[in-house]
Design goal:
Rossmann fold; alpha/beta; Double Stranded RNA Binding Domain; single chain
Length: 257
């Protein structure tokens, strides 16, 4: 990755938006949609502690000058249509509040990001946010039933998986949370082996990709491509064949092609 995607909380906070015209208006709407307070003067925004600045000047020199001033004041800067001047880019958003899916291309192609967003809009249920809210409300009950963090994660992985009790694509999944808490968690555990056919992650089967995404530990045997390992959870332990493997949870051994 050439960019680290982050979600920045700006509700009630000042955000600088400079410029006139359609692009500047779009940034103002975006800031207001996220609950931020638009400030249209750079000096004022700096004085009251703004942390982000959107610059939408059509004039190149003006855009560069304000970007330098804002950056020197410690702000993160986005300059519309000038990726080289940006500290951050703005993704295309799929909004299922509180679930937000951001599609970015690092400024390479806003059109591609938009096309992907529109495809995802058609795929993702409108009630996806209700499931997130139901799971948030159930957090005390989830912690009471599964006291260990790894146990909770495996139970949620099983429930939210395709065909699981809380499959996000299933109608009425949010209403199934109490029944899931009272029933069998169906959590997967054990040791599994993936024998690669190539170092192309697209050659992974659906089951193999799912196992990698759920693994607590990954044992690497041979020259496995970083692109394959990137499919595993970032917090999953990376082990060599001689390393002691965990006795609980999901352990996946990957054998190079």
């Amino acid at each position: 990755m050439q960019s680290l995607p982050l979600f920045h909380r700006i509700a009630g906070q000042p955000v600088i938006v400079l410029g006139q015209g359609e692009a500047a208006d779009a940034k103002r709407r975006l800031v207001e949609r996220a609950g931020g307070r638009v400030v249209e003067e750079l000096a004022e925004g700096i004085d009251i502690g703004a942390r982000l600045a959107f610059i939408a000047h059509e004039d190149e020199a003006a855009a560069q000058a304000d970007a330098i001033r804002a950056r020197c004041a410690g702000l993160l800067v986005n300059v519309v249509d000038r990726p080289a001047l940006c500290d951050f880019t703005v993704p295309s958003l799929v909004d299922r509040d509180p679930v937000i899916i951001a599609v970015g291309t690092g400024g390479a192609s806003a059109g591609l990001a938009k096309a992907l967003r529109l495809r995802l809009e058609r795929l993702l249920p409108q009630r996806l946010g209700a499931l997130a809210e139901a799971l948030f409300a159930a957090r005390p009950a989830i912690r009471e039933r599964w006291t260990g963090g790894s146990d909770r994660r495996r139970a949620l992985d099983a429930a939210l998986d395709e065909g699981g009790a809380l499959d996000p694509f299933r109608e009425g999944a949010a209403q199934q949370v109490p029944a899931w808490l009272a029933g069998d968690d169906g959590a997967l555990a054990g040791r599994f082996t993936i024998r690669l056919r190539s170092n192309d992650p697209d050659d992974l089967t659906v089951r193999e990709a799912r196992l990698l995404g759920q693994a607590d530990a990954v044992i690497v045997k041979g020259a496995v491509s970083p692109a394959i390992l990137a499919r595993a959870r970032a917090d999953a332990a990376r082990l060599l064949p001689d390393d002691p493997a965990p006795q609980i949870g999901i352990v996946v051994a990957i054998e190079a092609a």
